[in-house]
Amino acid sequence: MKFGFNLPTKLMFGPGQIERIGKLAKDYGRKAIIVTGRTSARKSGLLARVEGLLSEAGVEFVVFDKIEPNPIYPTIDEGGELAKKEGCDLVIALGGGSALDAGKGIAVKAVNEGSVWKYVLSGDPDDTIPKKALPIIAVPTTAGTGSEADHFAVISNPETKEKPSMAAPVIFPKVAIVDPELMLTVPPRTTAATGLDVLCHSLEGYVSKYANPITDLFNLEVFSLVSTYLPRAYADGKDLEAREKMAWASTYAGISEANTGVALLHAMEHPISGYLDVAHGEGLAALLPAYVRYSYPGNPDKFDRVAKILGSEGRGLEACVQAFQNFLKKIDLDLTLSQLGVTEKLIPSLTKDVFKYMAFGPKANPVVPSEEDVAEIYKQSL
Ligand SMILES: [Fe+2]
Questions:
Q1: Do residues 170 and 196 both lie within one domain?
Q2: What residues sit around ligand 1, an ion, with C-beta below 5 angstroms?
Q3: Tell me: the pLDDT tens digits for 284-304?
Q4: Same-domain status, 28 and 170
């Protein structure tokens, strides 16, 4: 067996770790661009707190708070231009997956020519991998993306409706500050959807053809953590122990993802949230049962093991699918694609995009699908 393992990000984990952001920022830059969403970091007081900590440490900053859910490349280009104009030498990305991924895009745009879109792996012949970026400090406020510990940034194109990833070693955050106290105000629906994203990162990494013994260790721990603590965090957002365990699970899953990538489930979800701007975790939830049904024969032992951790007493395909369905019910995410606005008419476009810009996913999957297979999984999920 041959494999490598890479984790270049300094991880600061635990309640109250945000207090260290000033000193940490000073190690990497003189002036930061703080990248965040339009409302929540301001409303929760986190933005003001970070501004205060940076000022105390003598780090200058400018705020770019225009990041939308499923961030689009023109917004990221605008943030990159601002960073350049203001002479920023550090990015602090503060928020959910959208803010973190946009921060990575801004870090690239700030020191490279042209739009960030050319660095997104969209399947076009002229896309490319960026070689330089500003240093990034990632501060996740949801337990979901894992972006704080990986080298991916998902960026959408509003014209083509594509939602591919930029993947580059230079966008690994230098530091991830994972502070579960920052997650106590996440609403229940977002807690469920982002938490399900954690489960899917690990599931796909665990059954991937690129899984290795180290990522298996991380992912098995993630299944146990998510199985116990996601329903608790969903039921009571103020449950700090549950938030802490989910934050830990999210980062673990990100570390795995950085080493295995994702597989078919994510490859099929991205086109959905690209076309319809649905929450990523909800798209994953709607696809999950049919995805498990399709992929199970490629690695029954691993799927059975996950199902057991999720509470299944039986073995085999049906028991496994049932275990996932039961888990989705526990967090009120037993959804269909129709409920999210997907129609049968859209399936050919979704299928085409899976193979255009998410082609890694089908190849990594334990069962490698044809275009007809992918269309059928979409259909079963309607
Ligand atoms: Fe994801």
A1: no
A2: 197
A3: 999 999 999 999 999 999 999
A4: yes
